[in-house]
Design a protein that fits this description.
Elements (H helix, E strand, L loop, with lengths): L7 H18 L1 H11 L10 H4 L8 E5 L2 E4 L4 E4 L2 H4 L8 H11 L10 H14 L3 E5 L2 H16 L3 E5 L12 E4 L2 E4 L6 H5 L1 E4 L4 H9 L3 E6 L15 H11 L3 E5 L10 H5 L6 E4 L10 E5 L1 H9 L20 H14 L2 H24 L5 E2 L8 E2 L8 H5 L4 H12 L3 E2 L15 H19 L1
Parallel strand pairs: 3-15, 5-8, 5-9, 9-10, 10-11
Antiparallel strand pairs: 1-2, 2-3, 4-12, 6-7, 11-12, 13-14
Bound molecules: pyridoxal-5'-phosphate.
Amino acid sequence: MSAGTIDREAIWTLRAVEQGEFESRTRRSAELTERARRSMPDGVPMAWMAGLYGHRPLFVAHGDGCHFTDVDGTTYVDFNQADLSATCGFAPPAVLEAIAERARRGLQYLLPVEEAIDVAELLAERYALPGWQFTLSASGAIAEAIRLARHRTGRSTIVVFGGHYHGHLDDMLVEGDERGGRPNLLGVNASAAAGTRVVGFNDLEVLGRVLERGDVAAVITEPALTNVGVVLPADDFHAGVRALTRAHATLLLLDETHTQTFAHGGLTRAWGLEPDVITLGKSTGGGIPIGAYGMTDDLRDWMERHRDTYVGAAGLATGGTTYANPLSLVAARATLREIQTPEAYERAAALGTQLADGIEAAAARHALPWRAHRLGGRSGFCLEPELPRDARDAQRSLDVELIDARRLFMANRGVWDAIAGAGPAASFAHTPADVDEYLRVLELFLDALAS
Ligand SMILES: Cc1ncc(COP(=O)(O)O)c(C=O)c1O
């Protein structure tokens, strides 16, 4: 293994050996996949469950804390956390108790329950935005936030940064440049995608040029990109984005779906950011589906004045029959009050540092000039000595063959690695011993590639 590079032959050879081991120890999952293929494409109830992994998906039997057990009886210590939607653990007692108690009093009314006020107040306090609405996913929250921004500004164009992911919406599933977007997946509405402009993360000059045209309703971004590894903002980036959006009467939407798990109050609070809208989802419900978005007083007032009503003029296109149901809300309340405490964030961040230090030390021992990402509990592999400044830099570290071989090797040794584009992350449910186990198996993997 030479510095900086890993021999492809070594990856392929190791992967082939690990694939054999995987097949022989996951026979029950294989049987279930075969049965499932008769009733579901690829044998999965949701296509990502097959597409996100280079190997056949496993069927899960049960989980608790940061461990889960597959139907063949193998237990894994998990560093993916269902792509940060299970950062509170797989069966957090506070959430289990809250939903069991609430369920006995009814599941769904299409009317508010008092607990909604508690959650909105908790979020308002934590994220410093006064008005909140709920959906069932981050994608749902982002769709509504974008419509609100479009209607408020009377403009339709949205700006995203390259390397973004903001959920399954036609105008977000795009690649392109400052002139416009095109679908980056099949089946996406090309005319919706065309209205989105794509600017390089950390590129204030191009952002300024695009906003000057005066047709941009909103800029949407994560505070730090988290779906191409991690890309951190340059020191002046967020101040620049805010100044430019204000100067051009464009709204700023911060997507904290992932980054809320890295700091109490999200990176918005940690970094003193001032968005018009914040969108949340994933682990906000401690594992129970929920999405949420918070808005300024001005937007709340706008929403009230343009409510969609059964009779009368058409209003803002928001809502879903099962949104803001009692179970989502009590799960979120328990999560916010009892799990995602300031102390829990500090513990997770310390584990993230342990993970990142360990990754860099393991790489150094193998003469690999790699860096580890550091963002709360989240780490990850940067395969270069310099951390990325934008998505193009970051893509160079997304070595799919290496990631795939590593996850298979680790799975065969009881460690569930993060999906490509993400990075291993320590959650509220991990301990230092769990992180040590990840690092022990990583060392074995690098040894195996070198031998
Ligand atoms: C930053 C970000 N925003 C939004 C979403 C959409 O979340 P969901 O698929 O739960 O709607 C994701 C999902 O990965 C995400 O990473």
